[in-house]
Amino acid sequence: MKTFRIKLSSSLLLLALSTVAAAKPVALVVEVSGKVFATGIDGKTSQLKAGQHVEERSEIMVEEGASITMNDYYNATYHLTGGSHMKFFNRSVQLKRGKTWIQSVNTRAPLALTTANGHVDFWKGEFITTFDLATSRSQVLVVNGEVEVSNVLNRGLKTTVAAGSFTMVDPEVESGTPRAPTRVGLQSLNSALGEFKKLPQQMLDTEKPARGIASVEGATAPSEMTAKKGEIIFIQTTRMPASVKPGDAHSYFKKVTRVSGTRNASVPIKFYGMAWKKTQAAVAPRIPASIPALSPPAQKLMAGTVQTDTEFGDSLKKHEGDQPKYSKELKSLIDELKSY
Fold first, then answer.
1. CB-CB contact of 99 with 195 (8 Å)
2. DSSP secondary structure, 163-220, as one string
3. Distances (CA, A) of 76 to 27, 58, 73, 93, 115
4. What is the CATH number of domain 2-204?
5. Domain boundaries, the chain
6. pLDDT for 81 beyond 90
């Protein structure tokens, strides 16, 4: 009995040693911020640093506020945020908690990501996966390309999620099958990516390119010019009219600028955009309606036939004498001033 126990212990030890010896690196640490730890299959835990290898079946645990970026050997990059926990296998990873952003340019073999209830098959593309331990809910948001999402217990029923859409696997909804993909807005996408240190290049190129001169080949855009403040830049262009063939520009401009005839030749002037108004003759003062209008000859004729009433004039003078215009004192003062 004792011999059997010794042999069994030796067999288990040899199996453990062979398992440890068979462990191979499956990823390389590219960048670490804060404290990130790795636990190998031997049970030992060590703090990861940039440049270290991650062995198969190693579990990566990211401290709150920290982050890590790793590359596998199938052209895929894995970003983990604070509080995340992931286990690495060959050509697959298992997200046990937290959030990961995966960028893959792999075209050789299919890769996979699993959670407690979700399974994601992916090749070339970018997507974000979140797993919440409290609700056992898995969420997949695709940034570029497309992925196939299914329940880990029913991988035959897959849902294809395209770029700009997300889905979730919730054990309390639709028996745990992936929900129909839903479109997501740009603001929500940026918010989801905000927890990561880096953003996709497509999201960084938000500035619209400056418009150059269409007729100038290879013209430098205004945003690319390195002019100093207050400096005037002259953009040289060789643009010709569409009706002029190459090489005929000189003759074209000579033909247009040549003036025929003498320099002092009268040229009619045309006005556009305003109405022409003729000069109107002066309007005579309005005559009362009770007086008939007379022509000039009639007026002269009447002027010659008008007779002066002398009796009326003598009477007027008499009344002026009886009713003087000024008082005697004022009249004497006026006459006295006129004598000076």
1. yes
2. TTEEEEE-TTSGGGPPPPPEE--HHHHHHHHTTSS---HHHH--SPPPP--TTSTTPP
3. 9, 17, 7, 11, 18
4. 2.60.120.1440
5. 2-204, 315-339
6. yes
The length of the chain in residues reads 340
pLDDT in tens, 326-340: 677 777 888 888 776
Residue type, 340: Y
Residue with tokens 């009886």: 322
Measure Cα distances from 200 to 27, 126, 189, 193, 197 in Å. Answer: 21, 9, 11, 9, 10
Nearest to 92 by CA among 129, 144, 50, 65: 129
CB 98 within 8 A of CB 110: no
- Residue whose tokens read 């920290």: 66
- Alpha-carbon distance of 35 to 47, in angstroms, equals 7
Q: Is the pTM of this model over 0.70?
A: no
